[in-house]
Amino acid sequence: MNDLLIRNAMLLDGTGAPPRRGDVAVSGGRIAAIGTGLGAARETIDAEGLALMPGIIDGHTHYDAQLTWDPWADPSPALGVTTVVIGNCGFCIAPCKPGDRDLTMRNLTQVEGMSLEALRTGIRWEFESFPEYLAMLERNGVVPNVVAFAGHSSIRTFVMGAEASRRPATDAEIERMAAIVRESIAAGAVGLGSSTNEPHNGEGGIPMPSRLADEREFKALLGAMRDAGRGIFMLTKGRTTTVPWLENLSAETGRSIIIAAMFHSNTAPTRVFDEVAAMKAAQARGRELIPQISCCALTMEFKLKSAYVFEDNPTWKRTMTTPPDAVPALLADRAFRDGVKADFVEGKGRRLFNSEWDRLFVREVREPQHRPLEGQSIAALAAAANKHPVDWMLDFALEEGLETLFIAELLNSDPDAVGRLINEESAHVSLSDAGAHLTFFCDADFGLYLLGHWSRDRGTLPLEAAVHKLTGHPARLFGLRDRGVLKPGAAADLLLFDPKTVGRGKRERTYDLPAGASRLVAQAKGVHGVWINGRRVVDAKGPIAIDDRPGKVLREFAV
Prior knowledge:
Layout: E1 2-11, E2 20-27, E3 30-35, E4 41-46, E5 51-54, E6 56-58, E7 81-86, H1 101-111, H2 116-122, H3 130-140, E8 145-151, H4 152-160, H5 171-187, E9 191-195, H6 215-228, E10 232-236, H7 243-253, E11 257-260, H8 271-284, E12 289-293, E13 298-302, H9 318-321, H10 327-332, H11 334-346, E14 360-364, H12 378-384, H13 389-399, E15 405-411, H14 415-422, E16 428-429, H15 446-457, H16 463-470, H17 472-477, E17 494-497, E18 503-510, E19 519-525, E20 527-532, E21 535-539, E22 542-543
Parallel strand pairs: 1-4, 1-5, 6-7, 7-8, 8-9, 9-10, 10-11, 11-12, 12-16
Antiparallel strand pairs: 1-2, 2-3, 5-17, 13-15, 14-15, 17-20, 18-19, 20-21, 21-22
């Protein structure tokens, strides 16, 4: 007798094949059979009118810290995600010496928008090395499956301490880092995550450690994976790590490279397509360079006391090293403002925020008399006041004690351009950043958005192709042999949904992080069930209270 039988579903198998009607039987955490007349089961679900697909594989999350206090990696399972990939951009918490813990946490508060009090209260420091971190996750249990990159910045800090953010490494330090990469791969890391992206700064605007790495270091660390016989390199690229440079790195080390973050910018509309075309040309030469894209518009909420969206503006960085009580005077300073304006002009098309003031809005005000301004753009408000947008925004925020909440539509706001990116055959649809930037946004529901908005509503790609982008395609990229597909013997990671209603639900702010810190969370539409390794964790009402933790820390990969 099977454990579970799901009958009469529209089956989307993750390969991109057309849907077909059928039944799926599950036994022992795996798919036992697919077809009809599959016999009896302890539990039978009639899925008439619903679709069944493999669970979503979220290839770009930052749950490294959260998993130590929240084995659910909330809210991802409720949004159809059955496997999360952590360690992206190299922003990990392992390896970490006890003396570097506070430095690591303070850096995460800046680069990943995390609450320092929540991190200090919540992280369970039951590890020092990367293998010990994986062992801790395994020992404590996880609800979704977990795939982990070893983190370049963490490794650099482990070897160099605070110097990791200040200088290139010596040959001896590079060799020690390479040894840690080999150790991490042997323990079950899927590869190495890193970043050279200019906005990626730690506390006080100091560059995250991986940004100080030179070519010798990158070649040595990727060479360590080559020597180990496997491992992917994941890089959030900056201006210096060009596609030709990455192709040469791949050619020399034999490593596949996942390249983030391929967003479309209205102020440099051809750049992302030029870079993707360069990656396709490299693929034709035998180098697997994979563009990692988002199907969501990059939208962030922020206050000027911590304006992540401006932190790659060189003059604005002064706010990050200025004592908090002196920041208002700095924001009022004319020379400072002139520098910010000049930097916006100089960097237009190359920054996170590119002076699109018509896409930056007042979200929420502190003073009741200002409520009529909520929802209006800075461009319109500044024009009405006959001021430069920088001056209007800073004057208004200062009047409100820097408590004004703004929201910026930063990148991926052109639907036609995003549709082109989604349809790139090799593009890895991901970039949810789930677990990070918790006060700014929540794109953990990116998969439901692809299924609902992009496939059903806009018709940008067929439903079976959208499912493949979320399941079979990332399973191949990460070398997950028995996941991402519906076939006998595969792990029973399943998502049951209504194709007519699936999509993103509302956003809401909760205060359920350690120490009562806040975050934005997303709700699902059209999800009727999620199973992880055969265990149901979500029904039509949301997450189910369960005693066990069915996920696995995945350690074996065919890459």
